[in-house]
């Protein structure tokens, strides 16, 4: 029996197997090592609705809990991106007498703090306790719960309809999509908008960024698959916008069917996806072959450097790096430690491969000859602040879109 599509019950055809993988954000203490959780990470495409998705689900409470360690405000570029985004969302509901903005996956309040500062009624759904508490410290109103059909109905009952429902890097995390879209249908005002942005499958294929695939990233959206996904819920895709953040994303704007005319950008992106062959097995199998090539190149480079006695340090203990290190067999023998600014990750071991995570200051103490940039999506920001590394003779290793040293 092939796996079943979580959107339409169609048959899912697997095209890439990334093997046995740990929870990507489970940074471990020594005591955690014995009970580490693993699952099989593989991706397929629905032959009916074209949605690309994981073939195995990880239970949500194993990923999103009190100690979830990802803090959205850790990047200055992302802080700026979400401030700009919040202002744009506020402008879109400025004509309402008492607008209400809801965010799904509000994390540490990186977006809603701007909404709060504008004095606009808002609510964030954020199940992960400590990041939700960080938002509350900024005065952001947070419900420490998962958004779904039931919790959305309760908010509609107490607060009334939402003019804007926003989500960034969260909708693609949620396999129980029918409950989400039912919740949007219950909570959204008649002329409201549901806006979400997530890594774009077109960019993932174009850049061979296979590290975007991990437990938390369940769906890999295209304009075509999102259009089909929302149509069954009386909703319509009315706009798409490509974004440069996180290696290439798309922001999808959804309205109630017939409420707003779709922009030309929707048809244009769907046409571009057809030309790129994003739903064709030949393209997907080429992506799998490209992924295998990147793995071979990265393994060869790291092994050569080890033989030459050259130290390599990882930069950014990202969730994405769990896929790279576990798929490529990169342990502390090849990468001696990973530095990261997040206190919740420091002093711990990377999932599956058990590489120590150290504070960012460890990078310059002293600079290593080579750094493997796991947080490649933040390359401009990181290279700008780590100019001393290059000046010391250090070189960056990257693997997107292919392995290169610079
Ligand atoms: N929006 C932020 C955070 C993305 S990380 C940003 O773009 O940086 C994804 C977040 O979604 C996590 O904080 C996780 O706890 C939360 N999340 C996961 N499932 C959720 C659900 N069903 N409802 C609301 N939030 C959810
Ligand atoms: P990110 O790539 O945003 O997400 P994911 O974990 O989903 O792959 O993670 C960036 C990580 O890199 C995060 O742990 C913070 C860290 N980081 C630094 O250590 N220094 C920096 O300058 C930046 C921007 C991020
Ligand atoms: Zn389907």
From TrEMBL:
Residues 244-401 form the C-methyltransferase domain. The lineage of its organism: Bacteria, Bacillati, Actinomycetota, Actinomycetes, Micromonosporales. This is NDP-hexose 3-C-methyltransferase. Signal peptide: none annotated. It comes from the Bacteria. Pfam families: Methyltransf_13 (PF08421), Methyltransf_14 (PF08484), Methyltransf_23 (PF13489). Residues 5-64 form the Methyltransferase putative zinc binding domain.
């Amino acid at each position: 029996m092939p796996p079943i599509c979580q959107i339409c019950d169609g048959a899912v055809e697997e095209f890439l197997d990334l093997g046995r993988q740990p929870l990507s954000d489970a940074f471990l203490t020594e005591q955690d090592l014995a009970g580490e959780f693993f699952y099989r990470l593989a991706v397929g495409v629905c032959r009916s609705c074209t949605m690309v998705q994981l073939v195995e689900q990880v239970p949500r409470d194993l990923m999103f809990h009190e100690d979830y360690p990802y803090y959205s405000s850790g990047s200055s570029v992302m802080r700026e991106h979400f401030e700009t985004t919040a202002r744009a969302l506020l402008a879109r509901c400025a004509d309402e007498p008492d607008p209400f903005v809801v965010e799904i996956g509000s994390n540490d309040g990186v977006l809603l703090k701007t909404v709060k500062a504008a004095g606009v009624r808002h609510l964030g759904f954020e199940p992960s306790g400590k990041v939700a508490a960080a938002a509350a410290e900024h005065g952001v109103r947070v419900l420490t719960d998962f958004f779904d059909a039931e919790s959305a109905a309760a908010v509609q009952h107490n607060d009334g309809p939402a003019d804007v429902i926003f989500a960034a890097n969260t909708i693609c995390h949620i396999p129980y999509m029918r409950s989400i879209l039912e919740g949007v249908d219950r909570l959204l005002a008649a002329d409201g908008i549901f806006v979400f942005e997530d890594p774009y499958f077109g960019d993932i294929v174009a850049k061979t960024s296979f590290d975007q695939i991990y437990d938390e990233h369940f769906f890999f959206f295209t304009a075509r698959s999102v259009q089909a996904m929302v149509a069954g819920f009386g909703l319509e895709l009315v706009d798409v916008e490509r974004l440069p953040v996180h290696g290439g994303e798309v922001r999808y704007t959804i309205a109630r069917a017939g409420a707003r005319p779709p922009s030309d950008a929707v048809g244009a992106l769907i046409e571009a996806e057809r030309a790129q062959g994003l739903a064709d097995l030949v393209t997907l199998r080429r992506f799998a072959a490209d992924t295998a090539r990147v793995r071979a190149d990265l393994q060869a480079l790291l092994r050569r450097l080890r033989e030459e006695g050259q130290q390599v340090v990882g930069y950014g203990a990202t969730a994405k790096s769990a896929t790279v290190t576990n798929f490529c067999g990169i342990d502390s023998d090849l990468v001696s430690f990973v530095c990261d600014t997040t206190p919740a990750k420091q002093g711990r071991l990377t999932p599956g491969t058990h590489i120590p995570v150290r504070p960012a200051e460890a990078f310059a103490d002293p600079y290593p000859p080579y750094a493997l940039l796991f947080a490649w999506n933040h390359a401009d920001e990181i290279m700008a602040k780590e100019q001393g590394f290059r000046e010391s003779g250090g070189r960056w290793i990257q693997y997107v879109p292919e392995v290169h040293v610079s």
